[in-house]
Amino acid sequence: MDMYTLLAVILITTVTATICGSILIGTRMWLRAKTERMSLPGRVDIERLTEAIESLHEQTQFLQEEIGELHERVDFAERLLTKGEKEEPYKPDPLVAT
Length: 98
Prior knowledge:
The chain is an all-alpha fold. It contains 2 helices and no strands.
């Protein structure tokens, strides 16, 4: 497997896992809020929904930061791959004592 294919697989897997995790978390919170709303008075529902919204906001910020870091890593990997092996490897100076 070449480097581009490996990088693509890692990127697709990471993005897919992030999206699926977000969907699952959002669905779980929505179902919990919906079932709790049926059994609780109005004020408690509003407080719980507010907490759920704040939690979703924090999770969204976390995921945005993770995606930003992944984007930086992909950019770095792309720069390394496009750079290739144009540079010669380090050769020590024979005149310098080791």
